[in-house]
Amino acid sequence: AASRRGARSEEDIMADLYATRRRRRCQLEEAASGSPLLDRLRRAVASALRVGRAAKKQPAVTTPATNGGTATIGGGGAIRGNGENGHAAEDKVQWARGKAGEDRVHVVVSEERGWMFVGIYDGFNGPDATDYLVANLYASVCRELPTDHDPPPPDDAGREQRPPPSSCNGRNSADDLIRRRGRHGAVLDALARALRRTEEGYFAEAEARAAECPELAMMGSCVLVLLMKGADVYSMNVGDSRAVLAHRAEPDLTSVIMPPRHRHQHSADGHVTEEIRRQFDECDMTELVALQLTMEHSTTAYKEVRRIRSEHLDDPACILNGRVKGSLKVTRAFGAGYLKEPRWNKALLEVFRVDYVGVLPYITCKPFLRHHCLGPRDKFLILASDGLYEYFTNEEVVGHVEAFTSRFPDEDPAKYLSHEILLRAARQAGMGFHELLEVRQGDRRQYHDDVSIIIISLEGKIWRSSA
């Protein structure tokens, strides 16, 4: 392949690159118009519901609505068929979870809106915050994104916020680009508003119940949300759960593709052409690489620690023993009012209070937001709470899923990852795997954190598991 490229000029190579981008965008627009991925994912979710009920030997429940409604998996145990009014049915199936029941997974495939919503809520100090998120966050997203303001049609092919040099018909104006980016930004802003208003509702309820349940001020949750429509993926997170995209590697040409006015400086010795060839030769385009779509909000992130310390110069103990006020590892979270306002801290029993200095919040619920446009090189998405990443790097997770699905295409890679976590947790605790399994589900938290995993194949499959 390298020898064949040698006869090509720099202009030929660049023309091929741009033509490939145009073809990719045409393919994405055609795929999005019929939304075949959404149809396949809807069927996969329905299949997951059936398999989950059979595995748990639960009685049959109402099937998910298909007449313009939604198919929903509620990770706290709720499985609902939602009609157009958005109100859930009462049918429930309980999933195995930790002693405190703090983790929730919420998956909604909406035919009416043409999107899929995935939420992973990793709670702490109790289950109320995560229960509130499952019951209210998606409904709030629907209010903030009414049907006539749904996410825009697909943008560029696989490069976040970078347009191709031309569209399918050869025209691509700066105004079009600004309009598309503005619409993507509007979707992300709507997700952030939905989260903020959901938290406001949670605190209003906590205040109304403060006399009977002051501990609500301590409860909170990490939030990871993914909204998929066509080729567009919108992600939002607070805390340390992650969304990781697995995609095929491609050569990095950012350092060699220069503006046309500079190319003549190197055209004599063919510098640019040779560098492009080298990048193609060195890049293994069959390899899957990991792209993290979320941002880490924990005391392991230097920027987060620096931000908190700069906001609390009069409190040298704002970060203590690797935790915010010696209490919480995450630096952003839903709820957890005792680290956001002095009044919530004062409402707690003295044994649970922190030494709150001043009035500024120690943690916030300000989310990290990102838009990504899926391309042909993108293969699958992995969404998981932080327990997975206590044992694996992003690259290891992608490698394990790729190897497992290649060898066992009909098996469940999410359950495989859960199994691997238990193996590593048992080894770390000096126990045998079966010894760990004999420990009661709730008591295992002294050996490993609760883990929720969702894997979405862009071929239209979805798997979920917990450990």
Write the layout of secondary structure elements.
Blueprint: H1 2-5, H2 10-34, H3 36-56, E1 70-74, E2 79-82, E3 103-110, E4 115-124, H4 128-144, H5 174-208, E5 220-229, E6 232-238, E7 242-248, H6 260-267, H7 271-282, E8 288-292, H8 302-311, E9 319-320, E10 323-324, E11 334-335, H9 342-346, E12 368-373, E13 378-384, H10 394-407, H11 413-428, H12 433-438, E14 452-457, E15 461-466
Antiparallel strand pairs: 1-2, 1-3, 3-4, 4-5, 5-6, 5-11, 6-12, 7-8, 7-13, 9-10, 13-14, 14-15
Helix pairs in contact: 4-5, 10-11
Descriptive account of the structure:
Keywords: Hydrolase, Magnesium, Manganese, Metal-binding, Protein phosphatase. Belongs to the PP2C family. The chain contains 12 helices and 15 strands. The chain is an alpha+beta fold. Helix 4 (128-144) packs antiparallel against helix 5 (174-208) and helix 10 packs across helix 11. It is globular. The strands form 3 sheets. Strands 1, 2, 3, 4, 5, 6, 11 and 12 form an 8-stranded antiparallel β-sheet that branches. Strands 8-7-13-14-15 form a 5-stranded antiparallel β-sheet. A two-stranded antiparallel sheet has the order 9-10. It has 3 domains: 2-31 and 251-284, no CATH class; 35-247 and 290-297 and 367-466, Phosphatase 2c, domain 1 (4-Layer Sandwich), CATH 3.60.40.10; 302-331 and 333-352, no CATH class.
Mean pLDDT: 77
The CATH topology of the largest domain: Phosphatase 2c, domain 1
Tally the beta strands: 15
State the fourth-level CATH superfamily of the largest domain: PPM-type phosphatase domain
Uncertain residue ranges: 1-5, 56-69, 75-100, 149-171
Structural classification: alpha+beta
